Amino acid sequence: MTFLLITTIGVACLLGGLLKGISGSGLPSVVVPLVALQSDVPTAVAIAQIPTLAINLVQAWPRAHPARSVLPHWPIAATLFVATLIGVSLLRVAPPTILLLIVAGLTTFAAMFLVLVPSFVLPKRLRLTVGVPIASVAGVSAGLASLAGPILVPYLLALRLPKDLFISVVSLCYLACIVPTIGAFLYWNVVDPRLFILSGVAVLPALLGMWVGNRMRDRIDERRFRYVVLTVLVGTAALLVGKAMS
Predict the structure, then answer these.
(1) Which positions, given as ranges, span the membrane (predicted)?
(2) Which sign, positive or negative, has the C-alpha torsion 209, 212, 214, 216?
(3) Where does the pLDDT of residue 149 fall: very low under 50, low under 70, confident under 90, or very high at 90 and above?
(4) Mean of the per-residue pLDDT values for the chain?
(5) Stretch 220-235: mean pLDDT
(6) Contact predicate 143/90, CB 8 Å
(7) Into how many domains does the chain fold?
(8) Confidence of residue 95 (pLDDT cuts 50, 70, 90)
(9) Which residues of 61-73 are buried (b: 16+ CB within 10 A; e: fewer)?
(10) b/e burial code for range 215-239 (CB count within 10 A of at least 16 → b)
(11) pLDDT recorded at residue 112
(12) Which pLDDT value is given to residue 245?
């Protein structure tokens, strides 16, 4: 545990919290690649867990909608929970480099499609048919590299949810990934449990970044919010490629 690593964790969590506050996503996608440059992927994934848990607990409660408005998305959250357990079990035997490249490719393709076809809306009759397979892949990716967002967010964007409801639904989905990840990491001793103490300290810069990001989001209309989220996705893809190549 070096000074450079601790500084990297603090800066990464601050930036990740800022993006999470603005777009509803981005904390693990920033923290994991940046921290992994100074350590390894399992360590980076462990560090990302407690800040991500804290932020998503705060954001899962809708700010401008009734709490029941997130309930129709429970099948996606349940699928994510099970698939994440599978992904964490694979983390002990499967190197995530190829996964990073695959996720980067899928993220770039989905983001470009939504930019080129801005009026696309996924029909309600197809939401579970499309959403459950996507959640399965996203959950495995979450367990392997704490990267459900790059796969899951394009699907949620295609639902055309209002921005505050989008934030709540994506936060609920992330909670479905985080809880089994933390439990499985501790049960299987994937990493040194003491890393979760450092992860707990990293909550502070993450919450500070989220606080600033929330206020920035309040000034963004629905159309600009959508493009902010797409920009975050493309930036995430670039980070993933950089980490895989390194």
Answers:
(1) 71-91, 98-122, 134-158, 165-188, 194-213, 225-245
(2) negative
(3) confident
(4) 86
(5) 86
(6) yes
(7) 1
(8) low
(9) ebeeeeeebbeeb
(10) eebeeeeeeebbebbbebbbbbbeb
(11) 82
(12) 72
229 with 23: CB under 8 angstroms?
yes
pLDDT at 116 > cutoff 60: yes
pLDDT score for 88: 82
The two most distant CA atoms of the chain are separated, in Å, by: 52
How many Cα atoms are found within 13 Å in the side-chain-facing hemisphere of 161?
25
Task: Name the token pair of 72.
Answer: 């129709």
Going by C-alpha positions, the residue among 180, 184, 175 that lies closest to residue 152 is: 175
User: Is residue 110 a contact partner of residue 233, using CB atoms and an 8 Å limit?
Assistant: yes
Q: Is 83 helix (H, G, I), strand (E, B) or coil?
A: helix
Question: Cα(4)–Cα(242) distance, rounded to whole angstroms?
Answer: 19
Identity of residue 242: G
Given 3-state DSSP classes, what are the helix, strand and coil percentages for the chain, each rounded to the nearest 5?
80, 0, 20
Task: Tell me the average pLDDT across 183-187.
Answer: 82
Mean pLDDT, residues 36-61 taken together: 88
Specify the 3-state DSSP secondary structure of 60. Answer: coil
What is d(CA 153, CA 141) in angstroms, rounded to the nearest whole number? 13
Helices (H), 92-221: 97-116, 127-145, 149-158, 163-188, 195-201, 203-217
